[in-house]
């Protein structure tokens, strides 16, 4: 069977979202991951905290719209991957569901309003989201496309688009959650 980088990336995403670690996604998992992301925003930044929570609610709603949840309102890995392909990662929905998370993260973390994240800011963000600093540090190098020592908002958006939409196994965005490998891509 051919290596399917999209399926591998969506599997990693499923496992990341599975806050109950039970192999099933529920609305509660999306509420919890929304809180994990909201906690990255600075104290008092309610606009971005709410934007992050709302984005994960929209994501769950899109899974429901795709028919992914079963009668118990749970989503297994095969259903998640199918819904990601049929609903979440299509351009019309992607910009409405996924990109608001990225935009709110950038606004929350770019406290000096430079339009970019330093390596320290990037690594701290992903560490708060449960990603090992050595993994996010290696990703930072690849995602800093112009070698400026920062990841601009545009570079971050491009990386997200590559992670979710690209089938190119060499795309830098595949490093978003760590180094991709044929047997276990991380990003």
UniProtKB/TrEMBL annotation:
InterPro entries given for it?
EF-hand-dom_pair, EF_Hand_1_Ca_BS, EF_hand_dom
The record's section on Pfam families has:
EF-hand_5, EF-hand_8
Query: Recorded GO terms, molecular function?
Result: calcium ion binding
EF-hand domain: which residues?
97-132, 138-166
UniProt cross-references to Gene3D superfamilies, sorted A to Z:
EF-hand
Q: What is this protein called?
A: Calcium-binding protein
């Amino acid at each position: 069977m051919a290596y399917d980088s999209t399926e591998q990336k969506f599997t990693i995403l499923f496992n990341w979202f599975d806050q109950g670690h039970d192999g099933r996604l529920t609305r509660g998992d999306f509420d919890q991951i929304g809180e994990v992301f909201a906690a990255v925003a600075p104290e008092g930044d309610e606009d971005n905290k709410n934007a992050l929570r709302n984005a994960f609610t929209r994501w769950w709603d899109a899974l429901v719209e795709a028919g992914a949840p079963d009668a118990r309102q749970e989503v297994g890995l095969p259903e998640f991957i199918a819904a990601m392909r049929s609903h979440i990662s299509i351009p019309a929905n992607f910009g409405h569901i996924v990109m608001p998370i990225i935009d709110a993260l950038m606004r929350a973390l770019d406290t000096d309003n430079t339009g970019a994240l330093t390596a320290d800011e990037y690594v701290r963000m992903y560490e708060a989201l449960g990603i090992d600093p050595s993994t996010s540090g290696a990703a930072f190098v690849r995602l800093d496309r112009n070698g400026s020592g920062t990841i601009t908002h545009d570079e971050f958006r491009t990386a997200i688009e590559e992670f979710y939409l690209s089938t190119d196994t060499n795309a830098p965005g595949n490093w978003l959650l760590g180094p991709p490998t044929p047997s276990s891509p991380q990003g």
